[in-house]
Amino acid sequence: MKKAYLLILIFCSTLIIYANDKHRVIILADMGNEPDEVQQITHMMTCSNEMDIEGLIAVTGKYLRPESKEEYRRVNHPELFIEILDAYAKDLPNLRKHASGWPNPEELRKVVCSGQKGYGIADVGEGKSSKGSKLIIDVVTKDDPRPVWIVVNAGSNTLAQALYDYKKEHSKTELQAFIDKLRVFENGAQDNAGAWICSNYPKIHWIRSNYQTYAYGGPGGTDGDITTNLGPHYWKPYAYSVTGQNEWLIKNVMTDHGALGKVYPERRYHGFRDGGLGFMEGGGTIPWMGLVNKGLFDVNHPNWGGWGGRFSANKVPDFWSRHVDIKVDEEKETPFYTYREVSDHWVDSQDGKVYNNNYAPIWRWREAMYNDQICRMDWCVKPFKEANHHPVAAINGDDSNSIIRISALAGETITFDASSSSDPDGDELIFKWWVYEEVGTYSGKIMISEPQQSKTKIVVPTGAGGKQIHLILEVKDKNAIASLFDYRRVVIDVENIFVKQESVQVD
User: Fold this and answer.
1) Which of 28, 49, 280, 446 has its CA 20 to 30 A from that of 34?
2) Is residue 150 classed as helix, strand or coil in its secondary structure?
């Protein structure tokens, strides 16, 4: 027996993280503020087989509040959730032909409600509980060990009320257990309650996104604005403009794509900007999008990245709201700590353009996300044989949705085999292995043998002891409709023990 091989057997142990578990999610959204909220939730329903939706709460925010100049924006609109769920129910029989795990629309209707009626922290306190704040408490205190991913796509005062009420009735230990189950993604800091929560409950897991949250279709621009920055152009053959995005949506989402396609609106502003078009889906898609790819994204590690963006490894102080008026209020709550956005370096394969900014952690997945939306909308109406379905990425025979974590030795060569990956449509598969350099803690280059083949090897650098390496397997199918992707992440924890493999001898 080779003594070094014994070491390898000891250290190259595999740990599966959150194997095949769906993530629990609650959505807080200012439904009715603009059409993008309806776009986001309609889109989410086509992905709802990938998550457990446990709350759909209509809430207030900077733009939808009792003080709004526009009457419609003065009240919450939970009925918009119901309209989307009604459309989902009509398409559900066909969706079931393509995938399993779809939620029951009747059960979803039961978790639709309104949150706080007023704006911000002023509407939090004694006697101000709402159906939404009570629902949050009920969900978090269920006998379910999984954390709850809370998407704040408007103001967060309904969550603040839930925390206020729970603290009032429970011990410090119980309160901390409650907080420990929360994973909050705040989109744009749209009221002053977020900073208040983070200041008063400093151990809360709180992601604040001022930029990446808008990067599904943006970060910005309106129809006719020649300075528009919409990011990589993956809605071809339509023009690089908001109008071009809308034409892409008309073809791939709105027209001849079932009841969900019919309720999916144009993002045409009302109340300002003269009814012009905005970039597709605004800022509320990215906060839940990471949950779709469980083999790539980890709710406990915001710095690992994925379809939901990439954020700092540790919380940072006073990452202000992008809204000046809200920042003024937040200055009264300092210090407060959140995870904030970080940048990636990414080269777009379609044109060779290089991106080094804090939108790149989203844009690098844009082709995959847009193709996913195209194909899922097809599932609403097409038979199985006329639609495309996701390939299944497998590593060393494991075809689960899990992140793989291993320990390795500095200087060791590790072999990975994805040849058992498959495609339900029999499509040819394209393989790509790559190191997510920004995520790992080893700063040197890592050589990958044959990164375009199903089987590959990497040599763990001799100087990588005590560091972490993130290897991504990307599997893409070749399909005329739109190529779909699947991913697996391998987290390699490098031990400080060094092995010189060439000196290994058989006893």
Assistant:
1) 49
2) strand
